[in-house]
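A quick aside before the break. I want you to see a complete sequence-to-structure record at least once, exactly as it would be stored in a machine-readable document. Don't worry about memorizing anything.
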Amino acid sequence: MKPMKPMEPMKPMKPMAPPERWWPNKLGEPNSVGGQNDLRYAYFADIHRLAVQRGGKITLYDTGHHRIGGVSQQQQNNDSAATFTSQIGDVRLDDLKVVDE
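That is the input. The structure line, written in tokens, reads:
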């Protein structure tokens, strides 16, 4: 039986890479990013915008007075409804105004 070889020293960890930038550059840096299932979002508090990517398509929303914190999705009738949390409660994505920018 051969003796065990000594373990190699651990290599230092690489720094974490920034998140992939999938939102339009003109929006700048988001205050928060996240996602669930096939939906990704980036929230831009200063300009009241929420960028949402679903199925490869990016849509911009005006968040108005909402400060977006997170997202949840529910499956209903083969369609997924996204709901975001804000400082005044839940807000459905369908209730936000779509903007063209």
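Two observations worth writing down. The two ends are 70 Å apart (CA to CA). The chain has a mean pLDDT of 85. We'll return to this after the break.
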